[in-house]
Amino acid sequence: MADRRPRLSLIVPAYNEQESAGEIVGFYREIARAHASLEVELVLVDDGSDDGTAEAVRAHLTDQDPAVVVSLSRNFGSHAAITAGLSACTGDAALTLSADRQEPLSAVADFVAEWQDGADVVWGLRSVRATRKGASETFATTFSRVFNKASTVPTYPQEGPSQILVTRQVIDVLEAMPENNRNVLAMVAWSGFEQRRIFFEQLPRPHGVSKWTSSKKIKLVVDSFVEFSSAPVRWVTLAGVGLGALGALLLLAALVLALVPGTSGTVALVCGLVLLVGGLNLFALGVVGEYVWRAGDDARRRPVYIARGTWRTGSSAAPSPYETDV
Hints:
Pfam families: Glycos_transf_2
Helix content: 40-55%
Protein name: Glycosyltransferase family 2 protein
Radius of gyration: 25 Å
InterPro entries: Glyco_trans_2-like (IPR001173), Glycosyltransferase_2 (IPR050256), Nucleotide-diphossugar_trans (IPR029044)
GO molecular function: glycosyltransferase activity
Shape: elongated
Organism: Cellulosimicrobium protaetiae
Largest sheet: 8 strands, mixed
């Protein structure tokens, strides 16, 4: 009996990407042709789209294509969608790809080469970004660098990872992690294992616009720090110590001004101090509240996502032995 070919699962989270359905399936077939020694599986996760994304992708697939289409009950976010894809996939390794077809075929070859050379985790870092400029680029790089220094995951790439390949062993570890408000990339970095990096030049998006909004970016930043760092609490503590020292100096200055005839501004000085202290207290309460809320959210043990349905074809038609119900 011939040995089973290693299987690579391509995880593609998609939200309102109906117009990209042809490119998604076309790129999947390009990868399958370029890596004939592998059995390549497409895992498309429709993250609550309302434009028929799942149906459009299914229309481009045939009975011979090893593929899985998971439809979530609503929009849970890209990291929840990636989690759903990892749960549904049957591969010996899984590679995340964007729905807007911005990774070159050569980058996939680099991912596969590192995996076959023994890597458990392969980070995909963009050497040139086709679309992210200005404030968006500064935001991403600043977050990655600060998070790398201030968190418990020093292996998180400072350049800001875009895509990632993980082996089945790493997937099993991720499946066992219960976080509801998650950054899958940070979870992978935390897990350890043999981690390597590749660099690729991002291709321009063929059409449409990115669904990665500012509010989603901010939520990811907060989730990442709360789950993997105590630095925000420490920063607030240090700010409180510094403000206490400043307050003592200002109070002393106010007393001196009150005793010196002909001086004014004491009331304004004290009012400013009170407002400053009050503002810091509210900020500190908000930081602690983020930690408490997420701890409560995890304690409720709600599912990370809810799958409305799962469709399989080709050699992926049998349910994955790794798949969960939620």
